[in-house]
Design brief:
By secondary structure, this protein is an alpha/beta fold. Helix content is about 50%, strand content about 15%.
Length: about 170
Amino acid sequence: MIIILEGPDGSGKTTLGHSLSKELGIDYDGSKVLQTNQQYINHVDHQEDLANSNKVTLVDRCPWISELVYSPVRRHAIRINLAKIQYYWALPQIVIYCSPTGITKLDVSREYKEHKNQDLMDSVLKNHEKIINQYEKLFDTNKSTFSGFYQYNWKMPGEYDKLVKYLKDRI
């Protein structure tokens, strides 16, 4: 099973991933920039294997979700066919949507996003509002299709403890 941290850049996925990994004693598979189609295919296969294993792993973004958000915004074709996406969505997974509510300034500095190239980060900064809208639209329509779904906002007092309890009850 995988626990997927999804949300736009700057919404706290990486910070949350490290905290939850330590708190729950589970592995954390951090965000990756996939330059080639082969890297992308390998990453999708790897996350499918993680979802189908008996081990619980926390992952920072998942191609079968992120692809549906970033492809339309960045105006490139979706790299996974829709039938395959439906198959992936049925895998054992809990999606935590890291809501950007309350984020007033997106920090895309190299200090925090050193694993991402500057062109990508410039595009994210330029399209941040569109990306947020795509996530909201996607999850408003599809959150019931996942094994579990939790909308997380790190700005809300007590939210982290509620999330930990939610996950402990399910894993």
